[in-house]
Amino acid sequence: MRDDKKYPIKEYLQKYFGFNRFIGEQEGVIRNVLRGGDTFVLMPTGGGKSLCYQLPALLLEGTAIIISPLIALMKNQVDSMRGFSNEDGVAHFLNSSLNKNQIAKVKEDILSGLTKLLYVAPESLTKEENIEFLKRVKISFYAVDEAHCISEWGHDFRPEYRRIRPIMEEIGRAPLMALTATATPKVQHDIQKNLAMLDAMVFKTSFNRPNLYYEVRPKVSAAREIIKFVRANMGKSGIIYCLSRKKVEELAQLLVVNGVKALPYHAGMESSMRSGNQDKFLMEEADVIVATIAFGMGIDKPDVRYVIHYDIPKSLEGYYQETGRAGRDGGEGRCIAFYSYKDIQKLEKFMQGKPVAEQEIGKQLLVETVSYTESSVCRRKMLLHYFGEDYFHQNCENCDNCLHPRPQFEGKEFVIKAFKVITTVREKFKADHVSNILSGTVNAAIRSYKHHKLPIFAIGEDKDSKFWGAVIRQMMVAHFLEKDIENYGLLKITPQGQKYLKNPTSFMITQDHQFEEEDEDDTPPVQAGIGTGAADAELFALLKDLRKKIAKQKDIPSFVIFQDTSLEDMAIQYPITMEELQQIVGVGAGKAKRYGKEFITLIKAYVEEKEIERPQDMIVKSVVNKSGLKVYIIQAIDRKVAFEDICEAKQLEVEELLTEIEAIVNSGTKINIDYYINQIMDREHQEIIYEYFSTAQTESVQKALEILGEDEFTEIDVRLVRLKYLSEMGN
Question: Is 1.10.10.10 the CATH classification of the domain at 412-506?
Answer without folding.
Answer: yes
